């Protein structure tokens, strides 16, 4: 069966995050992705998780604590992510865009800060590393974000990045889709 969007996101991440690796959850929210990344890197690796909402930070910390896993959970915008990362390079980053289900829908990711964050993290990406974005465009800000993010990702230089879009094209109600950018290996 074709993988659904969240399963495929995790496949794309898991393939490039080794134990001891470094990964970024750019939108911690309820902490599900942070937990997944922390399982991939293991205790010897590092995970950085960002969110601007205090409630998201608390939920993510609690989820990690309950699972006895560790991450740097930082209440700041992902546009500042690169300045917190101590490692020289990262293996992967994930952006689950949009708003936190069940919370204030006005607190949502937006194109300018998302593009700034992606640019900064692409620079820190190891050869072979990936940035995976899940784009929710069924709400007003999401449609704007998609309209600016897609052209940015589509014009990343082909000799440096491989960029794909994964989307079900026969689903109703603007289903989310994935954009993944992989930094080319240097031979
Ligand atoms: N990955 C999360 C999970 O596993 O539950 C869901 C993330 S939710 C769709 C999007 C999150 O992005 C919200 O919690 C929101 O507060 C956060 N957000 C919005 N703008 C942000 C920014 N500039 N930097 C970091 N997080 C941001």
TrEMBL record:
GO BP field: methylation
Known EC number: 2.1.1.-
Entry keywords, A to Z: Methyltransferase, Transferase
InterPro entries reported in the protein's UniProt record: MnmM_MeTrfase (IPR010719), SAM-dependent_MTases_sf (IPR029063)
Organism domain of life: Bacteria
Keyword Metal-binding: no
Gene3D superfamilies: Vaccinia Virus protein VP39
Any one GO MF annotation of this record: methyltransferase activity
Enzyme class per UniProt: transferase
PANTHER family: S-ADENOSYL-L-METHIONINE-DEPENDENT METHYLTRANSFERASES SUPERFAMILY PROTEIN, TRNA (MNM(5)S(2)U34)-METHYLTRANSFERASE, CHLOROPLASTIC
Identification of the protein by name: Class I SAM-dependent methyltransferase
Annotated organism of origin: Alkalicoccus halolimnae
């Amino acid at each position: 069966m074709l993988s659904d969007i969240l399963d495929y996101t995790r496949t794309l991440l898991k393939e490039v995050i080794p134990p001891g690796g470094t990964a970024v959850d750019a939108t911690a929210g309820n902490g599900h992705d942070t937990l997944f990344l922390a399982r991939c890197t293991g205790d010897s690796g590092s995970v950085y998780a960002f969110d601007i909402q205090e409630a998201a930070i608390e939920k993510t910390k609690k989820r990690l604590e309950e699972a006895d896993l560790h991450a740097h959970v930082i209440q700041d915008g992902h546009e500042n992510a690169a300045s917190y990362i101590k490692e020289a390079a990262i293996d992967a980053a994930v952006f689950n865009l949009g708003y936190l289900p069940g919370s204030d829908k006005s607190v949502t990711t937006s194109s300018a800060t998302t593009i700034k964050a992606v640019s900064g993290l692409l620079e820190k990406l190891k050869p072979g590393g990936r940035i995976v974005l899940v784009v929710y465009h069924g709400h007003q800000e999401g449609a704007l974000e998609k309209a600016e993010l897609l052209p940015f990702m589509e014009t990343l230089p082909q000799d440096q990045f491989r960029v794909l879009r994964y989307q079900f094209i026969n689903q109703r109600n603007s289903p989310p889709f994935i954009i993944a950018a992989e930094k080319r290996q240097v031979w």
